[in-house]
Amino acid sequence: MAYIRAYLRASTDDQNASRAREALTSFTIEKGVKVASWYIENASGTKADRTELARLIDDAHPGDVLLVEQVDRLTRLTKGDWDRLKGAIQSAGLRVVSLDLPTSHAALTVGNGDDFTGRMLDAVNAMLLDMLAAVARKDYEDRRRRQAQGIEKAKQDGRYKGRPVNEELHRRVMELREQGFSVRKTADIVGCGASTVQRVMKRAEQPA
C-alpha cells in the first residue's frame, strides 16, 4: 500500500508552515486521499543536509508519494546536490507530487500494478522537476545578488544598519537555554534553525 508523505520546509525567514499545511490538506481532500505522515523542519532549501527530509526518504516504501506545496520547498540546491537528492528519492521509489506541478498529481491515484502509466509519469515528471529545480536555484541566486547589490549601495550611501534583531526570538532562546534545553530542542520549540540559536548565544556572550 502506498503512503502519502507530506514534506513542509520553512526557512528561518518564513518560520510558519501552517499555511502550507492547510494548502496540502485541502489538496488531498479534493483528490480524495489522505496524508499518512508529516515531516516538518526549519531549514534553507539551499542546504543538502536536512534531517526530516532524510527521515522521510528512509521511511518510504516503493510507490509512496512525497508531497510538497512547491518544488522550491524541496530544493534550491546546486545541480550537484539536487542530483544526489533526486537519486536518493528515486532509489527509495518515491514519486514527487507538487501542487505547482499539475502533471505530477496523477501519481496520487496511479496503481502500483499500472506499470506503463507509472513509468510514463516518472519520465515526464523527472524532466519537469529538473527544470523547476533549476528555476528555483536561479531565483535564489538572483535574489541573493540583488540583496548584495542593495546592501552595497546602502553602505555607500551610509544607510546600511544591518539586519534587525528579533528581540522576542532572542529572549525565548535565552529562556529555554537557561532552563537546560539543548540547542536542537530550543530550535524546535522556538521554530528556528540550530544555527540561529547558536548565533543568539554567541551574541549574548559578547560584552555590552
Q: What distinguishing features does this structure have?
A:
DNA integration, Recombinase_CS, alpha/beta, DNA strand exchange activity, four-stranded parallel β-sheet
Task: Give your account of this protein's structure.
The protein has helices spanning 18-31, 51-59, 71-74, 79-91, 115-156, 167-178, 183-190, 194-205; strands at 4-10, 37-42, 65-68, 95-98. It has 208 residues and is α/β, with parallel strands linked by helices. The chain has a 4-stranded parallel sheet with strand order 2-1-3-4, sandwiched between helices. Residues 3-158 form the Resolvase/invertase-type recombinase catalytic domain. This is Recombinase family protein. InterPro entries: Recombinase_CS, Resolv_N, Resolvase-like_N_sf, SSR_resolvase. Keywords: DNA integration, DNA recombination, DNA-binding.
